[in-house]
UniProtKB/TrEMBL annotation, chains A, B:
Lineage: Bacteria, Bacillati, Actinomycetota, Actinomycetes, Kitasatosporales
Secretion signal, residue range per the UniProt entry: none
Domain HTH tetR-type: 1-61
Keyword annotations from UniProtKB, A to Z: DNA-binding, Transcription, Transcription regulation
Keyword Transmembrane helix annotated: no
PANTHER family per the UniProt record, alphabetical: HTH-TYPE TRANSCRIPTIONAL REGULATOR LMRA, TRANSCRIPTIONAL REGULATORY PROTEIN
Feature: DNA-binding region: 24-43
Keyword Ribonucleoprotein listed: no
Record's protein name: TetR/AcrR family transcriptional regulator
Organism (species): Kitasatospora acidiphila
Molecular functions per Gene Ontology: DNA binding
Amino acid sequence: MNTSDRLIESTQELLWERGYVGTSPRAIQQRAGVGQGSMYHHFQGKPDLAAAALRRSGEQMRALAEQQLGGPGTAYQRIENYLQREREVLRGCRIGRMAQDPDVVADVELRAPVQETFDWLTGRLAEVIEDGRRAGELRPGAPAVELAQALVAVLQGGYVLARSAESEEPFHQAVRGALALLKSQLA
Amino acid sequence: MNTSDRLIESTQELLWERGYVGTSPRAIQQRAGVGQGSMYHHFQGKPDLAAAALRRSGEQMRALAEQQLGGPGTAYQRIENYLQREREVLRGCRIGRMAQDPDVVADVELRAPVQETFDWLTGRLAEVIEDGRRAGELRPGAPAVELAQALVAVLQGGYVLARSAESEEPFHQAVRGALALLKSQLA
């Protein structure tokens, strides 16, 4: 792995664990095994590097979601596969956790990859719901984008509840509850 | 307001805005207009004061929720009133945001009021769902606690999506989506 990739990967990990305010340039350099001069050769500073790390985390999250959402099965099955795929629940979401960081929300460069990832995910879930409606599998009803936002929110809120309880159980309960409600939309 | 209450209220505000790691004892003293000696007369330190602030925020959140969940109306209406009541969406949830803070999650005294608040809220929503089922208003189906966790997660995740977008709209969309799904449970 080249120096730039090592810096990005170390920043991805530290942002996930400690958030933006809790991640120092020094900690990034130490984890990447890279000197200060080398870091500033590749990146202008912490904001620049953090934006690159969040863009990469967003790409990786989209690729993972597409495995299930673009995979085989009915619309309901694709959504079920996505909601129930293996996750490191107690670590929380590396994208969603950034929304609690006031310095991220206030900086348009840092917030953009977070917002874009959720926009993509909501749009993709809404497409799958529309697919299911066109195929006569899911009943028409509320706007697909509202159901999609509710499903994305269940995952994001599920992480919050799991970390609060130091247990994965509330996350899995919330997902099962959401799937039970979605199942009642089957035609 | 006495000194102890001023310190607790200032800590509640700072934790909401900046999180635990972003809140210094000095900032608390400044906002409360209280000297360092006086703060350490009333509280052992930042962890002790933060735990008191989170307990009070939890009590206030429960009292607000009870206005709708224990109010008039059918089970569905009480839940709808609760999910749609006025909120400062872009500020996020002062309880849920703490779950992203690694120092809060790692400290049992700080995590306890967060977990207890969500346990109470999930239990109370499950009671309302059970009320509705006993009254023949809601159909039997998935365990009430799973539906309740999904609803709490929609709110918590809705805050995440709204802050990511710097717009209240994703929160309101997620709530409308969840209510549309819940409505399909009406008998």
